[in-house]
Amino acid sequence: MTEFLSCRPNLEVADLAPAAAFLRAVLGFEVEVDEPAMGLMLLRRDAVGLALVRSASPGVNATTAAYIGVTGVDEVHARCTARGAPVVTGLTDHPWGLRDFVVEMPGGHRLALGERITQPG
């Protein structure tokens, strides 16, 4: 049986440094690959990978660039607010069993971070 093991969104940004600094300082990601000549940086935290790709005209999604499943969403939210990260949608419990919030990183990309609080159905 086929199993999907990971997903790594590519986030286009005009400047890699502020986006990487945000991901490292606010969300605890670590840099795996830094290729400034290629305009590419790969970051990881636990099983979640994100790629930052330098672009002269970055495309930014109007809703969210990635939904990241976490445990302890309240603690992640508290960490983000304590570090001054712009939370654009506060903690919300959804009828489909998720509790999440949305944070905006430098460059305009929005990341939703959430956890399952009840099983669907």
3D architecture notes:
The longest helix has 10 residues, at 16-25. The protein starts with 9 loop residues before the first strand and ends in a 5-residue tail after the last strand. A hairpin with a 5-residue loop joins strand 7 (98-104) and strand 8. Helices cover 17% and strands 40% of the residues. With 121 residues, the chain is α/β, with parallel strands linked by helices.
Separate helix tally: 2
What's the overall average pLDDT, rounded? 93
Note the run of SSEs as H and E.
Answer: EHEEEEHEEE
Question: How much beta, percentage-wise?
Answer: 35-45%
Using DSSP, what is the number of strands? 8
- Share in helix: 10-25%
Q: Give the termini separation.
A: 26 Å
Shape: globular
Q: Which blocks of ≥5 consecutive residues have pLDDT under 50?
A: none
Structural class call reads alpha/beta
Biggest β-sheet, characterized? 4 strands, mixed
Give the oligomer, counting copies of the same chain as homo and different chains as hetero. single chain
Determine Rg (CA atoms, Å): 15 Å
Strands of the widest sheet, in order across it, are 1-4-3-2
